Amino acid sequence: MGQKKFGAKVIAFEPLADVFHELEKNIRINHADVIAYNVALGNGNFINGSKQGNMFVAGGQAKIQTSRLDDYTFDRLDLLKIDVEGFEHDVLLGARSTISKFKPKIIIETHSVALRKLCHEFLISLGYSLSLEGRTIRAHSPGMDKVTNLFYSPII
């Protein structure tokens, strides 16, 4: 069976080794056009968190070194999806040049009222507007009080 084409090339970043291996397995099984990196995206610094199930979430003593999206080379970038369990602002900081260059549409899941505000202000400063607010879940975890899916578009 040949490689399936869905009209898009996907580049995925996954920091946890066991989850990354499952991702690789699914890419092979589905003959998907996906390039996967076993790294955490952020601002290039270490992040502190903890492994909870198949996620690495903010708030913990474990440290992971991050890479910046700006350190990767792309021919184009149409859509950027960020779902990083409390590290949203760090990822945006490490992607500033890439976002400014390509002006992709951005889907971001923020995990607190404070993170939503930081991410919103950052994206507004880069010429984006909030296009749609999706699903919101009230949470009761420290630092993760409101999980919201947000859709941003560049102002043209």
Automatic annotation (TrEMBL):
<dbReference type="Pfam" id="PF05050">
    <property type="entry name" value="Methyltransf_21"/>
</dbReference>
<dbReference type="InterPro" id="IPR029063">
    <property type="entry name" value="SAM-dependent_MTases_sf"/>
</dbReference>
<protein>
    <recommendedName>
        <fullName>Methyltransferase FkbM domain-containing protein</fullName>
    </recommendedName>
</protein>
<dbReference type="InterPro" id="IPR052514">
    <property type="entry name" value="SAM-dependent_MTase"/>
</dbReference>
<dbReference type="InterPro" id="IPR006342">
    <property type="entry name" value="FkbM_mtfrase"/>
</dbReference>
<feature type="domain" description="Methyltransferase FkbM">
    <location>
        <begin position="7"/>
        <end position="114"/>
    </location>
</feature>
